[in-house]
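Weekly modeling sync, notes
Attendees: S.R. (lead), two postdocs, one rotation student

Agenda item 3: backlog of single-chain predictions. S.R. asked that every request posted to the team notebook include the full sequence so nobody has to chase files. The rotation student volunteered to paste the first one in as an example of the format we agreed on. Action items at the bottom.

Example entry:
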Amino acid sequence: MRFSITMVLWLCFSWCSVAYADQNLENMSEKLIQLRGEVESLNSEIRFLKEEHSQEMNFLWSQRNQIKSEIERNKNLLARLRQDLEDVKAENAQKGQSSEFLRPQFEQAISQIEEYLNDALPFKKAERLASLQEIDTQVKKELISVQRGFNKLWAFVEDEIRLTKESGLYQDSVLIAGEDRKQLVDLARIGMMTLYFQTQDNQVGQLVKTASGQWKYQLLRKPLQTEQVVYLFDSMQTQIRTGLFKLPTKQAIEE
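Predicted structure, as returned to the notebook:
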């Protein structure tokens, strides 16, 4: 009887040991599979990073070569421009000896045109003055001859005459009298006679010249004048730019 009990206990112990060993082997197998998957994932990530790094380096080298080529082209261009400038100066020095007597008349013409620009309707005034000053600078630095300067002045004056004959719609940021900051408005230029504006909330006004000679954007308050300017903008926006328009034209107001 005792032998039978011992035998049964031994068999149970053996079975439990085998079952426990099988369970450990299964757990280890799953762990190995998991570790192998992680290793393969890491290897794939490393290969990807290597390829990405290689592509990035190739791109950087390509950019470096392009920039180097661009710098070299710019150097060559500047060298050619510098040589061209020297050639122009030398050529104008020879021509200038026969035209130097025209310089006083040229300077007088520059002064007269500048005076006109400062007194005329200040439409794109800074740009127009800059164009005039550029011509004057080119002559003073002997980049062009005095005769060439006169030709450019004549073309400039023709552009000014054209402005007096044309009307158009524009947009600009202006400071309206009584306001503390600029705002974007629509502008209607009538030749070089006057300039009207319309705000985003449909208020209208006129660029007027004060008794002291200063220009300012003044809102119109009288209903009739407001209606006239609104009709002007409506007509010009629908491409109706010819016909009879009754408009407020007074440009001098009391301060």
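Discussion: group reviewed the output briefly. DSSP finds five helices and six strands in the chain.
Action items: rotation student to repeat for the remaining queue; S.R. to check formatting next week.
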